[in-house]
Design brief:
Layout (H helix, E strand, L loop, with lengths): L3 H17 L7 H16 L5 H29 L1
């Protein structure tokens, strides 16, 4: 069972680790979306597959926005 509030930081961590391993930054949002869909499809609640994929899309987009928002904030502070 996966909750969206838990999934977003997990997705951010996975994408950050893969970026350090060599993923180009321009592909990070797409990878975030794919990871979110995969997490919810395989570890989501026992509901219909379409609903799990939709939650995965939301969490992937949320993780992408969280990362870019935090990056912009840190850039403005320093």
């Amino acid at each position: 069972m996966m909750d969206i509030t838990l999934a977003i930081p997990v997705i951010v961590a996975i994408v950050s680790a893969v970026k350090m391993a060599g993923l180009r930054s321009k592909f990070a949002p797409l990878f975030s979306l794919v990871v979110g869909m995969g997490l919810f499809y395989f570890f989501g609640d026992k509901v219909e597959a379409g609903e799990r994929l939709f939650m995965g899309i939301l969490s992937g987009l949320g993780a992408s926005g969280l990362y870019s928002g935090a990056k912009a904030t840190v850039k403005d502070v320093y």
